[in-house]
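Hi R.,

Here's the chain you asked about this morning:
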Amino acid sequence: MTTVEEFAAGFREEPGYLDYGRVGPLSASVLAEAAGQNEILAKARFGSVEGMRREDQRVRDALSALTGFASDQVVFQPNTSTGLMHALFGMTGTVLLSAGEFPSLTFAAVRAAQALHVVTPAWLETDHGRVTPGQIKEQITQNTAAVAVSLVDSRTGYLTDIDGIRQVIGDRLLIVDAIQGFGVVDAPYEVADVVVGGGQKWVRAGWGTGFLALSERALDHLTPVFSGFTGVDGGESWDEVVEPSHTAKAFSMSNPDLIAQARFSAGLEEIADVGVPAINAAISDRVESVLDLADDFAIPIGSSRSADERAGIVVLEPQPEQLTVLAASLFNHGITATGRGQSIRLSIHAGTGEETLDMLRAAFTSYASAY
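And here is the predicted structure, written out as tokens:
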């Protein structure tokens, strides 16, 4: 097992980086994996390229270890959005979701409805963007075939109670966009029918890394609309278009990026070595430090303070007339964060160190001195 301290030592980014919700800079192990795989492909020694095909099984095994889905229930995807397109285009019936979800989810639902006319989005009314089991229970109908939700809301940082949602929706399909919590939230993925995620954020594995995990119920109900020549059993099929596989493999369109798979595997394996609960605990401690800093300077917080309702995101919501000053102070002190609307999102990871917190304190000091 790897300690949290050893895991944190693999963070190579410069101090001041608080934007893992947008993109996680490559970890040391992922960078080394990429260099090694690129060298193999560059030299292409006899048999080496064929050997790289083992990366598909490796990444599915690594995803199985973190999600609890069997490896043949998992298929690699180039990103989260593609996995969501597979899921929503494969749906039939009404899917209940919030219009405030990240656009990857809402666009997939609407585009599927426009193209195939067999799935209908039903828009959930939420409590300031927070999707709760109670709201779903009140708004679900007999026509609802599925509920789609983000594990962690990208704007509010709210950690959704997917176990509670499962309890109120019965045997309807539960589709979870896990990208904002995958790798750092110890979520009960087994209660979901569809789990979609990626490695470019909290896993720190770079772009081009995603997955789609499907329960047996999902495999029975979803149509693999975009099933390509790699989505069949028995290898390539020439001169005949055969039926899709009856496993998650059906939701594959073409040959995967083997080096992206290797990067993803490296990131997943180092997370498994330290354990998601340990990473989550370290993040929670650092989030508390950020919340304390914001309180010291009377900066309003828009995200939840409860450890049960948050992951690694803290949302700052200063008065509208003070937003520009706060954003400028963060920028001038080297803090990388995401500004969206009237808020600023800070994303804290297990590798966030004291130097970064000191830089944040200096930025808040500068901001406060302007008033």
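One quick note: The first strand starts at residue 74 and ends at 77.

Cheers,
M.
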